User: Fold Ribosome-binding ATPase YchF from Glycocaulis albus.
Amino acid sequence: GFKCGIVGLPNVGKSTLFNALTQTAAAQAANYPFCTIEPNVGDVAVPEPRLEKLAGIAGSANIIPARMSFVDIAGLVKGASQGEGLGNQFLANIREVDAVVYVLRCFVDDDVTHVAGKVDPLADFETVETELMLADMESLEKRRANVEKKAKSGDKDAKAQVALIDLALDKLREGQPARFAEVPEDQRREWRMLQLLTSKPVLFIANVDEESAATGNEMSRAVEKRAAEEGAVCVTISAKIEAELALLDADERAEYLESLGLAEPGLNRLIHAGYRLLDLQTYFTAGPKEARAWTIRKGWKAPRAAGVIHGDFEKGFIRAETIAFDDYVALNGEAGAREAGKLRQEGKEYVVQDGDVLLFKFNV
Ligand code: GDP
Assistant:
């Protein structure tokens, strides 16, 4: 599955947000740095209104949404890349995620200590990102000597790797994250294999006070501007309100949202932003037993998409019986779609489209 890592300085609202995400009020947010020492992984259902529609038509007994994982990564402090604070564990955890979510404190509350002594989300962002850049630099410099030795003895892969390492190091030495480097299309895979912390796509969360949940505030606007400058997505959220929303039932939640002037929970916006960031899309399977949403990357071909359900589906892939979501709905399900000639037989080269309703045929 796809994983987003939540990072930020201590006391910016990461745990509050994470708890809201996973609806576990149990792991209580506490008002002191380092309260989140163990990385926590939470699976979140991806809100998908089409799924219910599909289940209704297919008469499915169960609805199973797609899931996205969020990892609450232990608090980072200045100097973490030098092994101070929770550095090493932090770095190990963040290497595993597909995207990095920066939680930035945009609320003032004298009862909540700020590690730097004042609330300044952009300065906080610089602090965290600088640590990640330093960590990348250090790990690349360590690796470079070794890889270069191999390259000198004629290893072609190693040669290409040295070039990529230098590409990253050049960026980092300019004080810029590795994601700003221009990587040749045919080397993206090798680039990803370098596992750099600052080459992952990023998403900003401006965590605002309760009063600013619907409107944002001056600080969140500064964060939005900063995000826009690098073409990144920014979601303005009040973690505290999200935590409250998570404890309400559907009716109460709708009422509370309305009173706040919000169209939907911030967490929905966050999850959808994560989808966009990671270039994800959904396909469906539907039958009497269950209607289910599956997450894939845009551009994946049918066999790879099938592999998300089971490895055997990919290995033994024969074809995918395919109905576009709109056709499925308009023709009232599989039988109607088949009759109308809207059920397509798609082969190995078919690029799955968002909302496709698929039935895989495969050899065992
Ligand atoms: P973490 O260290 O980044 O995980 O931060 P926590 O989630 O533990 O939050 C630290 C403190 O800030 C807690 O006392 C939270 O209740 C408080 N807090 C988090 N988000 C907000 C917010 O949006 N508004 C206010 N006023 N307080 C918040």
Summary: The pocket of guanosine-5'-diphosphate is lined by residues 8, 10-16, 29-31, 35-36, 75, 107, 109, 112, 207, 209, 238-240 (CB under 6 Å). The CA atoms of residues 258 and 264 lie 9 Å apart. The first strand starts at residue 3 and ends at 7. The chain has a mean pLDDT of 89.
